[in-house]
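One record is given unchanged without comment:
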Amino acid sequence: MEDKIKAVALFSGGLDSILAIKIIQAQEIEVIGVNFKSPFFGLDKTLVIAKDLNVNLEIIDITEELLKILKEPKHGFGKNMNPCIDCHTLMFKKAGEYMTKIGASFILSGEVLGERPMSQNRSSLSIIERESGFEGRILRPLSALLLPETIPEKEGLVDRNKLLDISGRSRKRQIELAANMGIENYPSPAGGCKLTEPAFSKRLKDLFTQEKYSLEEIELLKLGRHFRLGRDVKLVVGRNKNENEKIQKFFQEGDLLFKAKNLKSPVSLLKGAYRINDDFVSKSCQITARYCDRNGEENDEVYINYFDKFKKCIKTKKVKPMKEEELKVLRI
C-alpha cells in the first residue's frame, strides 16, 4: 500500500486557512498544521479549530528570529511595525524545514491573492517563496488558478482542477464556500497581529530605544496607558479592573505601585529598575489622580498611596491631577 501524501499547512485558525485545508483534505491528502508563536500573535482558539478539522498541530516559537527581523527588516514595514514580507518568509522557511523533517511533499497556505496589500500581491508572494528556500513547494489552494503551477501539481500529487481562483479583499466567495462545506463556526477576519496596531507599534518602537528589554516588557505593552517619564522609567496605568489585576503581575523589585487612597482608582505601575526619583514619583501620582473617579471635580487634590514590591505602603502623597497638555507630552 502506498504511503499517504502529506502536506504541511500554515494554520492561523482563520477562515482562509480552514478552507485551504479542507480543499486539500478533500483530495485525500493528510494535512499537518503548523502554528507560529510569538509575543505578537499566537494560538488563541487555533488548537480547538485544528481538532475539529482532524489536523495535528505543531507549535513553532519564532520569537527570537522575529525580534531580530524587527530591528531591521530586509523588506521594510507595513503601515505600522509589521514586517509582513520578512515575517511570512520566516514562517514558510520554518514550515519547509518541518515539511522536510516529517517527509511531507509540500506546504499549503490560506493566502488569497490581493487580500492583503503588503504580503499578498504577486510580487510579495514571489519574493516570499523564493527567499524561504522552498520555491515551487508552496501551494495556495484558494488562489492557485491565478498563480504559477506548483511542483505538487506538476507531479500529480494535487489535482489543479479542484483548486480555486479567488482574489481581492472581498470575502464573499469564502463565506459562500464555508456555507457549502457546512463550516459554521470560524473567527472574524480581525487580523490578530499586534504589530499591525498603531498604539502597540508606537509602544514597541519606544521600547526598542532602550538598551535592554525583556519579553515580559513586551507583554506589558499590551496593557493600559503608557507614559515615558525618563529614559529608563515608564508608568503604566490600568484602564479597567481586568487590566489593574494583570498589571500587578508585572510588579518587580525596584518598581512602585500607585493607587488613590479613598477613590475608585486605576492601578499604576512605575517601572524604573532603581532609577526612580521624587520627580518621577510626583508625576506618577499626578497621572494616577488624573484617571481616578473624582465625581466631576477636575481640580480637586487627591491622596495617592504608593507601595513597594512587598505591597508595603511607602508614603501617601497629596496631588492635583496632571493637566491634559502635560499628559499628551508624556504619553506613548
